Amino acid sequence: MILLYFSASSFADQNKVSFDAEAILPENQISEASYFDLKVQAGIQQKLTIQLTNTSNRQVNVKVEANNAVTNSNGAVDYSKHGEKLLGSPTFEEIASKPQTITLKPQEIRQATFQLDIPKQGFDGTILGGFYCYEETKEKEEKNDGFSLANKFAYTIGAQLSCSDKKIDPEFALSKVKSGLQNGYLTLFATLENKQPVLMSQMQMEAEITKKGKDGVLHQLSKKISMAPRSKFELPISWENKPLKKGFYELTIHLKDALGKKWTLVKAFEIKGDDEKLNKEAVHVEKEDEPTDTMMYFFLAFCLIVIICLVWYISKLKREKS
Predict the structure, then answer these.
(1) Which contiguous run of DSSP H or E holds residue 302?
(2) Which domain holds residue 263?
(3) How far apart, in whole angstroms, are the C-alpha atoms of residue 273 and residue 285?
């Protein structure tokens, strides 16, 4: 949520930042954060201002978008996607004015002002969004070693709005499970939903996949995730290069928040014959009789022990004869 700067390119050192962006905090700011953290009133219109500074010696065009906070596939809150739908209303994009493009002369300082129209009935929970600021350029994407690089720098200034003091209990759902490919590797995609207008930060997530009727965990994933209010995302779980086999499976996800509250989500799913076609499309899939590294190590160790025993036995026989 704090003012952040990042580059979409891994070759950032080849470029220079052309502008700065800063929030002009209003009187209804309720914390000392550098982003907008506001308590708003039902039915009012509120203006929010971003100050832009051209730090270069050339003219730049800065696009500023008011975006909904969403959850990306890494399980992190993301403010960079315009037009993303949420699971309910009101959303930040619904109450904020449209994107703007601000032209800045060299070293010029200008302000971009957005209007928020707070619903007459107000709202419970949190509306979370952000102002995504980036330079509009006509340059084509560069190609480096076969990868496309956007070389785009951006600032995100978060906006967290509350209107009432009503406590909202979190509610999660595991709505869909499907198999697919991620970067060419077999992956299970689980759609996880945060159904309430509550920001859930740094939750511990444990995912386990089992096959119905059999003991043991086939695949598992453990990581920290955060979820924007009323958002959903596809959680990728690696199939670890094992072949997909048709049958009935079960995915269990355990969530624990910073206060220790826990949730357990369970979803049964089926891998069908058509899903097995992904085995041929994947970058790598272990064969059924392909030994694992652990099995290979045990086999080599066994062979070494047999050889040592044989050498010792032969040496013993020779000593007895002599």
Answers:
(1) helix 293-321
(2) 172-281
(3) 16
Tokens for 135, please give them: 């330079």
Interstrand relation of 36-39 and 4-7 (parallel, antiparallel or unpaired): unpaired
Per residue in 29-81, pLDDT (tens digit) is 999 999 999 999 999 999 999 999 999 999 999 999 999 999 999 999 999 99
Q: Which amino acid is at 281?
A: E
Q: Which two tokens stand for residue 193?
A: 């939903």
How far apart CA 246 and CA 278 sit, in angstroms, is: 12
Rounded to two decimals, what is the model's pTM?
A: 0.81
User: If 0-12 CB within 10 Å is exposed, 13-18 middle and 19+ buried, where does residue 96 land?
Assistant: buried
> By three-state DSSP, how is residue 86 classified?
coil
Is residue 8 located within the same domain as residue 130?
yes
Count of domains forming the chain: 2
Overall size of the chain counted in residues:
322
Last residue of a domain, one of 138, 162, 186: 162
Gyration radius of the chain's alpha carbons: 27
